[in-house]
Amino acid sequence: MKNEAVEQVDNFKYLGTILDKNLSFSAHVDSVCKKANQRVYLLRKLKSFDVSAPILETVYRSLIESILTFNIITWFGNLSVKDRARLSRVVKLAGRIIGSQQKQLPDLYHQAVYRKARKIRLDPTHPLHNSFQLLPSRRRLRAPLAKRNLYKRSFIPSAISILNANALVWNVLPDSTDWLVGWLGDIYVCAWVYVCVCMRVCVCV
Predict the structure, then answer these.
(1) Cβ neighbours around 89 below 10 Å, total
(2) Which phi-psi region, left, alpha or beta, contains residue 14 (left: φ > 0; alpha: ψ -120 to 50)?
(3) pTM of the predicted model, to two decimals?
(4) Which of 2-6, 102-106, 139-143, 170-174 has the highest mean pLDDT?
């Protein structure tokens, strides 16, 4: 580039996330597990001092879970089963020390993806806003064509899949307000039918 040799590296840390040439994020998991295990030792020490469970849970969420979930929507979807199991062991170990089961990372990942997707959907100025398009039925989002697993596990396909699977699309307002007219019409019809049924019941009684 500009007559200068570009250095090639296997891993590169960018904004707190370690990227590798295969986008497997194994190196990032190594770093996360190392930091988290160091803080699990602190959790053990606090437990030995008879610190109450609520305080232990607060320490876990502040010092350990925050590390495990930092920028999770970027890397968790592409992890291998082995790397996911390594992270899960950290969560389970912390749960045993605290004395109560903690939220697993897949659940936290789904929640983070949904929150981010909803913000993007409600922000017309966001660069990814047009990636979330409703189908003509107005009930589901249009899923992108993903032939490779690397893209299928990335943010946009994963977010659309999570929204569609959990029927949460109605919590996200579309660009057009045409859906509102049909929705109010359906409510009017249902209310009219309900009134007619109630009147008929009263007459019969």
Answers:
(1) 13
(2) beta
(3) 0.74
(4) 102-106
Q: How many residues does the chain have?
A: 205
Q: Where are the alpha helices (DSSP H) in the chain?
A: 26-48, 53-59, 66-68, 72-75, 81-98, 105-121, 149-152, 155-165, 178-204
Q: What is the pLDDT of residues 157-202, one digit of tens each?
A: 888 888 888 754 444 444 444 444 444 445 544 555 555 556 554 5
Output the CA angle 174-177-182, nearest 5 degrees: 110
pLDDT tens per residue, range 27-84: 999 999 999 999 999 999 999 999 999 999 999 999 999 999 999 999 999 999 999 9
Q: Enter the tokens of residue 96.
A: 């045993």
147, amino acid identity:
K
Q: Report residue 142 as tokens.
A: 């249009």
For helices 26-48 and 81-98, the axis angle rounded to 10 degrees is 10
Rg of the chain in Å (alpha carbons): 24
**Please, what is the Cα angle at 159 between 150 and 130, to 5 degrees?**
100
